[in-house]
Amino acid sequence: MIKSYKLRRNIANAIIYVILAIMGIIWVSPFAYLLMHSFRAEGLITVNYLIPHEWTFQNYIDLFTVKGSLNFPRWLLNTFVVALFSCVICTISVLAVSYTFSRLRFKARKKLMNVGMILGMFPGFMTMIAIYYLLKAMGLDRNLVALVICYSSGAGLGFQISKGFFDTIPRALDEAATIDGANKNQIFWKIILPMSAPIIVYTVLTSFIGPWCDFILARIIMGDRRDLYTVAIGLFDMKSEEFINTYYKQFLAGSVIVAIPITTLFMIMQKYYVEGVTAGGVKG
Amino acid sequence: MTFVEYKMLNPFQRFAYNFKKFFKGIPGAVAGFFKGVGNAIVKFFKGIAKGFANYGTTFVKGDWATKLSYLIFGVGDIHKGKVYKGILFFLVEVLYILYMVFFGWGFISKFGTLGTQATKTVYVNGFPHTEPGDNSMLILLYSVLTIVITVVVFAIYIANIKDAYKHQVMRANGEKPTGLKHDAKEFLDGKYHITLLSFPVLMICIFNILPLIFMILIAFTNYDKQHMPPGTLFTWVGFKNFGDLFHIVDGAKKGITFIKLTEWTIIWAILATFVNYILGMIVALMINKKGIKLKALWRTLFVIAIAVPQFVSLLLMNQMLATNGAINVLLTEITHLFGNEGLVEIQFLNSTPLMARATVVIVNLWVGIPYTILSMSGILMNIPEDLYESARIDGATPFKTFTAITLPYMIFVTTPQLITTFVGNINNFNVIYLLTQGGPSTQDYYQAGHTDILVTWLFKLSMTSQDYGLASAIGILVFIICGTISLIVYNNSKSMKDEEAFS
Amino acid sequence: MKTKQLLAMILAGMMTATAFAGCGGGGGTDQPSGDGGDGGDGGNSTALEVKENAIVDESVFGDEDNITLKVWAPEKAVDLTKKQIEDFKAAYPGKTFTNIEVVIQGEDSAATQILNDAEQAADVFGFASDQLNKLTDAGVIQEVAFVDYVTKTNVAETVTSATVNGKLYAFPETNDNGYYLVYDKSVVSDEQAKTLEGILEGCKAAGRKFIFDSGSPFFACTYAFTAGVKIDGFEEDGETQKFVDYDEDEAVATLQAFSKLMHDYKGTYASLGAAQIASGFSTGTCGAGVDGSWNTVPDQKALGDNYGAAKLPTINVNGTDKQLISMFGYKYIGVNAFSKFPRSAQILALYLTGDKCQKERTEEVGWGPSNLKVAGDEVVTSSPTLQAITAQAQNAVPQVNIAPTLWDPMGNLGNKLIADETDPTDTEFFRSLLKETIVNVKDEA
């Protein structure tokens, strides 16, 4: 009986290993393809075989040296700077809002939470024009500050997950601190935040990635200022009908360049990300 | 069931009870939601009426300074010794008047017509010059700005009156107003929520709410290709755009497109959410099964798909799915192994609607499953041990344990998340737009293709064909659907109900 | 903001005042021909005299000086445009040009960019003819001041295509924005390239593809046009697409013939994006294709000596060879209606589209000129590509007065013709497909 149970378990595990391996290959292979073909020397767009015949670094070299409509190093820098600033502002906003909703009790709290939750659901393409002209009225159109503002302005609306996380921190801690004479401000900074590493990392990570992925709003804000583009618009452009014949392989190389830092970051922070999303998700 | 009865159940039964209760509660929740909305509206108007009543009584009871506060902000406060607050109130009034005189009034005065003076071309010495006229879009936008500012200033105005009266009463009772230092401290403790919320809320007001109001108003105008600022004016048309969407007779393309796309959007959202959910859960269970090694490796393989920016992986997918793309090349090489000559050229994205839709759903699996795996893994590890314990005492088989504990627990815990994902998929722009751009195109729809969902249609209408009015109307409808669903679910979810569970 | 507006109003007022003063000064004679009169030419554009190389008298600038302009040019032409602007500056020594900036902006999306924010857009911009209606509808493009000169010096179609309600809105820049046949001479012989059947035979024999983007409306309307279903501007309401009279039986037979070829040469007749043609040449998977003029350079690079270009082939319908009729567009340079230097912008646009600049562009970038003088020049007659384009232009429907409802039905038509489940022998299917297409194009929606 015991033996057959063990055998059954082993067979089951073997099947699971096979399934996982196949799925793993399916999930990773597009990126393997991307990586290989970013080193491809021949052909313009597609080739009718899977593994490149000639390998070269030229696509990467072109990516960083060709000027003209392409200005990849500058775009990379722009995106990095924007991502850095907006993720600082986002994180502060999200933490402030979610702490408030989780810990502080005041009139209109529930109403604000409801409003905050549904506001983010409006499909926002139409509002982009409005945002552009508002920024313009402030003299902020066509510069990177505008992008930082755009990416971080709505951050407060994404409070659900971190509120869920804060909800799991026992209230007794707050109460003990209050008895010791701490005010709400001190509780927030000295007690709650130090315990919130997972959710801070989660927020930083998600808000840092945002600017690398937006290819619509940034284009509207930047207009013809190609030197202020972010990598997302740049890459999107390189794949447009106008440039695909010239820059497709550079597009592949650029995609790899963009994917590397984010993937690395993600791998390092994965543990926190899972903790954050779980803790917040279960409650939220 | 009474509390005592509840406490006497073992955790397993307790859980089953809660589980049942949640799903039983859904119809009631829906009804409750609409009742709540109704009540809120009634309450709102009652509040306004009460506000007016208070406004009058305060004026009658007020001394000269309080009365003067009705005209000049802050006088009451300054008179009662709360100088800094009075000055702030006064500054608000001054700034508001300056704003109105130099900026706001010029726009808000044209709000009713959205401009009458069209841009003209005049010839000066045989040379065409442009004589700029009104810009309807800026009039609308800055009018909305002015209205929002006015509402805020009005709120401050009321606060100013209340404050003046409060201090008048305090003085009558012989109390002294608090000083700046004391008030500042209060903002770090009792009123800490104001401190924390002020910045995010300000940003949200300017860059989310204001544009939103603007967009909602656009839906009632004829802002489209033929009425395009700065060259031409647009104006109010009432509910015409909504009428177009609900005008469903043969040959009325906009209406038919709307119905068909709504249908597909819902099918898409259901497929994208639940298939992802179930498959993701199965994979998560496999990875987390006891005895499976290299858990971190398996998870990492999937996580890569999250880490690579979505637009990169989707653009790549789009290329790979082309008739001469990598996937067809792969299939060709596989069939060659079986002695088949010739090329495999499956048109994944641009042949039949069914094929394209299936492809989109499958690619979305590839995109979405890793997210499910990540959150599920965490939850699986968090299932309370005592649930399993009591099941074991009851003598349940592993299969029974799974169907009776693991599965319901996961569904229960992740329901709110599931609904968020559902709403997210209704608005899932990236996957559709980057993969198919809505194609395969069809002549039966108005500016839309077979895989277009409402948001991508909205995007095309506003960005490619400049049908802003219609696009906004669609946006509002999508918003109403999504907003209602989420409000109902959130306000009845476990997290909202027992918010204090851990406290 | 308010002060800015006020300032602008005062300035505008002053300008008008000075303009009137100028008028009054020279107003003694009727319609003085603009030789040297200080901005004193009368109220009619015909009086604007243009000299050699599209240069005008400096007085045409009026009182504009310290000129700042922004120019949009596509990446390919940026360097050349910069050089041409230097020449432009040199041609007007009496004027100070503070800054004329050239910014990269694709001609395909110029209209979108201008509509987002006309104030920040370029003063002088290149765009493709399909965007003209968008620009005129929104009123962001300025009427052309030099109507007579432009009409006189350019190919007639390019001028009529830029004329809306009797007013000319843009300076023709090229007469080449269409598609033609490119082929690998080692696969398809020059003789074979004359018929669609020959091309397909050549490609099939070599195991190569013939690429024709049947799903793209811009390309796919060739099927309808060749069938005789040509568009002819608008009906009287100004928005419903009008068609020329056509013989339905013949149209159906033509569509059927196309579909039959697509199915007979399945695997050879490929519906892929035009960009894939150059890519296919470079990897040896493509033998011929119907490609746009914007891809000429990569095509040439990929094929080298084997590069062949010709007008579109013929197709055999019931024994007669019918020439394929394409859609043909043009490129223009437009002037932003909200330019702060409207006169300078016009003068620059005029210069950039003049014969000298067009010739330079043909020589260095390979664009087909719209200027009559340059079109007869040796640079054009010696280029196989430009010859192919010019020949095709004779067999084309100009891309003008297109209802937005044209595109989707045309793409649908192309997709249906090539679809696997279509039976090329089913005449009734093609008849109803044609009817459906026409109905949907005409739909007012």
**Any idea of the CATH class of the largest domain in chain A?**
Mainly Alpha
Low-confidence stretches of chain C: 6-46
Backbone structural class of chain A: mainly alpha
> How many helical elements of chain A?
13
Number of strands of chain C: 18
Write down the overall geometry of chain C. globular
Share of helical residues of chain C: 40-55%
Overall mean pLDDT score of chain A? 86
General shape of chain A = flat
Please trace the helix and strand order of chain A, writing H or E for each element: HHHHHHHHHHHHH
Largest β sheet strand count, sense and barrel closure of chain A: none
Helix percent of chain A reads over 70%
Q: What integer value in Å does the Rg of chain C equal? A: 24 Å
User: Over the alpha carbons, how many angstroms does the gyration radius of chain A reach?
Assistant: 24 Å
Strand content of chain C: 15-25%
Query: In whole angstroms, how far apart are the ends of chain C?
Result: 41 Å
> Architecture of the largest domain in chain A in CATH?
Orthogonal Bundle
Decide which structural class fits the backbone of chain C: alpha/beta
Explained architecture:
The complex is a heterotrimer of chains A (about 280), B (about 500) and C (about 450). Chain A has helices spanning about 1-35, 60-65, 70-105, 110-120, 125-135, 145-155, 160-165, 170-180, 185-190, 195-215, 215-220, 230-240, 245-284. With about 280 residues, chain A is mainly α. In chain A, helix 3 crosses helix 7 and helix 12 crosses helix 13 (about 245-285). Chain B is an all-alpha fold. Chain B is built from 20 helices and two strands. The longest helix of chain B is centred in the N-terminal third of the chain and has 51 residues, at about 10-60. Chain C is an alpha/beta fold. Chain C contains 18 helices and 18 strands. Chain C has helices at about 1-25, 80-90, 110-115, 130-140, 145-155, 155-160, 195-205, 215-225, 250-265, 275-285, 295-305, 340-350, 355-365, 370-375, 380, 385-395, 405-420, 425-440; strands spanning about 50, 55, 65-75, 95-105, 125-130, 165, 165-170, 170-185, 210, 230-235, 240-245, 270, 285-290, 305-310, 315, 320-325, 325-335, 395-400. In chain C, helix 10 (about 275-285) runs parallel beside helix 11 (about 295-305) and helix 17 runs antiparallel to helix 18 (about 425-440). The longest helix of chain C has 25 residues, at about 1-25. Mean pLDDT of chain C is about 85; it is low at about 5-45. The chains are: A mainly alpha (about 280), B mainly alpha (about 500), C alpha/beta (about 450).
